[in-house]
Amino acid sequence: MSTAATPPEPPTTDLPFRDPALPLAQRVDDLISRLTLDERIELLYQYSPGVPRLGLAPFKTGTEGLHGVSWLGPATVFPQATGLGATWDEELLHEVATAVGTEARAFHQRPSGDGPRHSLQVWAPVVNLLRDPRWGRNEEGYAEDPVLTGRLSVSFCRGLAGDHPVYLRTAPLLKHFLAYNNEDERDLTSSMVPPRVLHEYDLAAFRPAIASGAATGVMPAYNLINGRPCHVSPLLETEVRRWAEPTGHELFICSDAGAVTNLVESEHYFDDHPTSHAATVRAGVDSITDMGEDASITLGRLRTAVDRGLLTEADIDRAARRHLSIRFRLGEFDPDLDPYAGIRDDVVNSPAHQALALRAATESVVLLKNDGALPLSPAPGQRVALVGPLADTLFEDWYSGTMPYRITIATGLEAALKEHGAEVVRAEGVDRITLRAASTGGLLRVPAPDPGGSMVAGAPSDEQDAGDNACHDLFDWGEGVLTLRNARTERYVTLKDGDLTLAADQTQPNGWFVHETFRLEPQPDGTELLRNISNGRYAAVDPATGRVTLSAEAPEKAERWTRRVVRDGIAEAVAAAASADVAMVVLGNDPHINGRETEDRTGISLPPAQEALMRAVATERPESVLIVMSSYPYAVDWADKHLPAVVWTSHGGQETGRALAGVLLGEAEPSGRLPQTWYRGDDPLPGRLDYDIISAGWTYQYHDAAPLYPFGHGLSYTSFAYSDLRLSAREAAQDDTLTVSVELTNTGGRSGTETVQLYTRALAASHRAPRRRLTDFRKVSLAAGERRRLEFDMPVAALAHWSVSAGAFAVEPGQYEILIGHSAEAIALTAPLTVRGPSALPARSLIGGRLEAVDFDECVGGTLVDATREKGEAVTPATGAIHCGLRYRSVDLGGPPDGPRVITAEVSRATEDATVEIYADGGPGIGTLLVGLHVPADADGRYDWRTVSAPIPAGVTGVHDLHLVLRGSVHLAAIAGGTR
């Protein structure tokens, strides 16, 4: 045995992973090699502990930064993402994201104690498409269109990441992959996305930021897609990581909070947690977000998965490498070389960022209608009535930062008008009420000596001239949902979890569990019950102390209240309008109520109380202007018909009021354009879970009914004319690139900004083609009378659709149209284009081949489910349907040279006798029945696949359209043809 001393381990500063001259992969491999298995497993959790012996600091994934740094304290707050989408301004989004990333760096530098610093991995942007305007998280997405969303997301990611060739300012991560556009039961619902919708729509929004290298990571969504949870979707590997390969960097994929636990607890997709965690990691997820900062549960599940052989060390190492690669790129191991390490607190809400917030809020304003009412021409002595529940308030949303200051519309407009000698008359237009308890006769009030304390409703002798202490402004948000703001504290009434008391101490409804929403439920005797929506309980009054608690679980145990209106909100607003020269009504939503994460909207109408307020004011003052400040579109049909002007802004952040004032007075141009369709109130929208936009008719691409305001719509204070549309060629091959050019002229009397939108459409496609599809756009500012020729380079490949027969994008030869104009419906000019080339629809050979069931051209009454937990899809009749029909175009059935032929179907889960009928050239009663395959009932599981076969009639040969009918609860994965 040698007695020589073991050489001492070199200082960590001398280890190869600390050497910035080495390639990134080599540095990561060196560090991985020095970590124990348990230390590597710890890297797969959101809160990774440090490794002191190697100088490895604790690390946390995820800082929210959707439109400003969130949840960390005051920071610059920009417009909501849908408002940023309305700017159609890639350069602006780059600047906004640069500011967000810079402020995230400043927060990262703040002392963090023993825990990890605030993360430099920023969970933004959200790239989910705004398919359904009722989505509770509509405010988080950019647009309903994948081209607009994709380009804006690239700009935002690049702003977050910075432009250094080696180091990242922050690491942007895209949310939420994939086809996630509903909140109600989001962890249980499956989005049915056929191949064309998948490739042309949902994937198309995510691909640009990933393929360009702008994004560094992805977060899977809570929902299922085609029957399989997104967190174990093979698309993470087959699509997402494949797109990133040419960039030279691997993506870092993080789970959404609690989603991996959902795989067992709510979705019951796996039997136990070690199995679900292993499947998630094998599917490509590198970091699990779950259980807050309690690492023991998740790490225990991962360790058990390794011990049971469900995960190998190679699986752990693969995820750990991706984790560490991001940290190297963020400069953690090279602080002296990191160009962003010197950023400090003075950048947070800096004057430059405030100016940028004003610019972003201004550019996001959309002028929906204007019959000459705007811009205002203020004069000395002029009075403007500003009314409505959102006139003098700004709301934060769940992913907002904390606004360092708030310029409300009232504040901004008042300051702007004052410069012209004009004034604002304010009225919120909400009722001020009192509530008197039947049991004590006392009024619900804040205690006079301590207005922020627990509310009481003691005997009248205790009220001591309650006054404002007992008055509450009632905000009616529709669906029976109310908030109460105490007149004395000017704060919202809220439920206190600990003792279930009430206090009027909140600046706005807030939190994951909103405690500030109530219902006043009418009773037969004319009284009302006060019920808190969060805990579902009713208010009760202690007869001895008068203290009010939300503790009664049943109506019969609840206090009965008598409401008295002490100030009529509508009357007050009408009086303000009558005293003014013009009225502006500000309506909209509170982002925490009736449409937010975990809760979809039930419709698109304004709350009835707001609609009544608007109509009453307009009756008194027909010159009223409607301003909608909201997270999503509303059906404002009445306003569009009766009012001279309608304006929309998202919740625009700290500078909203100054921005609106600038636009309303004409000091700024209304340059925003709608990023999604505003549907009419009488339009029967498709089902919220109908993700097949082609068959359902979603978005401007496939919705046939005329919208209230179309995608891309937005008016200007000047006018623009299009002329002389030219194509570099009127005929082109499928791999050509064309130049499309057009003359744009500002024909008005002032400078302005136009968003030029280029659309395309196929005129005689063999598939159901979009009505039109955005292909390119450009935001252009012109002085009055200025003319400019604009050029767009358009690859003919932009005309491609996903061919289910080819399994790839393809451009069909034939006739197309190039359209250019102001919006999806306001087309100014068109030009024809002929595409030459071979057919993009080759016949699919059944004999010796395999036709995947999912690759249908049409599906009626069916849905898509997973073929196995790991991969593959199958078709089955939808819930409630007794059968479904499928169509497959151009299938070659072979002929006599092939000899006797058979068709085989791969099927599973027939809980009762079922059949698969296959017809040529039409369904039952029209086509020729080729085979009727009987599928006997069995007790096998849904993933136990087998085959059933039958001969093809000898007289049917060559290419036909196949029509399949599935009858009964059978899953079909594929059909194949062969000989015997």
Task: Report on the architecture of this protein.
- With 980 residues, the chain is α+β, with helices and mostly antiparallel strands.
- Helix content is 21%, strand content 27%.
- The strands form 14 sheets. The protein has a six-stranded mixed sheet, with helices on both faces. Strands 37, 39, 42, 44, 45 and 47 form a six-stranded mixed sheet that branches.
- The longest helix is centred in the first third of the chain and has 20 residues, at 90-109.
- The radius of gyration is 31 Å and the shape is globular.
- The chain starts with 23 loop residues before the first helix and ends with a strand.
Keywords:
980 residues; alpha+beta; single chain; disordered N terminus; 6-stranded mixed sheet
